[in-house]
Design goal:
This protein is α+β, with helices and mostly antiparallel strands. It is built from 6 helices and 8 strands. It has helices at about 20-30, 50-60, 70-80, 95-100, 120-140, 145-150; strands spanning about 5-10, 15, 35-40, 45-50, 80-85, 90-95, 105-110, 115-120. A hairpin with a 6-residue loop joins strand 3 (about 35-40) and strand 4.
């Protein structure tokens, strides 16, 4: 389970060092083999351990090849999916194409999302977090929750 938010730095080659607390788990669960792809809803990247990515691939494989929206989803997620091998120092190389897509600069934010990480440009993350908090506060009590969210409590 990946949780928390980590401020990291991309080196000049585009590598980021994964937090030490997750390295051992990633080595044992997937031998340090991760998949990075674009996020379809936010200007960030998604980083999956290989076993979690294989679940996504299976779901994408079951979609209809006739449905244009399904094909678009497959094309975007699979077409941008890149293998990232963790090196002995716990670093992965984020390809330039993906770094450019997410507008990643030197300072980035790695955000745990249970089965994956999001990789954000630090400034974009701070702006998004502020927007989300402001929206939540503005809508407090005014939003009708979906059936699945009504059962969620902290």
């Amino acid at each position: 389970m990946f949780r928390g938010s980590f401020t990291l730095t991309l080196d000049v080659k585009g590598r980021l060092a994964l937090p030490a607390r997750y390295r051992e788990t990633l080595l044992s669960d997937c031998q340090g083999h991760l998949i990075c792809t674009i996020d379809l809803h936010d200007n960030c990247l998604l980083l999956y351990p290989l076993p979690e990515w294989e679940i996504i691939e299976d779901k994408l494989n079951k979609l209809s090849n006739i449905d244009p929206k399904a094909r678009r989803l497959q094309r975007l997620l699979l077409g941008h999916a890149t293998d990232c091998e963790m090196d002995k120092n716990g670093r992965i190389l984020v390809p330039a194409l993906l770094r450019n897509h997410a507008g990643l600069n030197k300072n980035i934010r790695l955000v745990g999302q249970l089965n994956k990480f999001e990789i954000w440009d630090e400034t974009a993350w701070l702006e998004r977090a502020a927007e989300d908090i402001a929206l939540e506060q503005a809508q407090a009590g005014d939003v009708e929750l979906s059936e699945r969210l009504q059962d969620f409590s902290l």
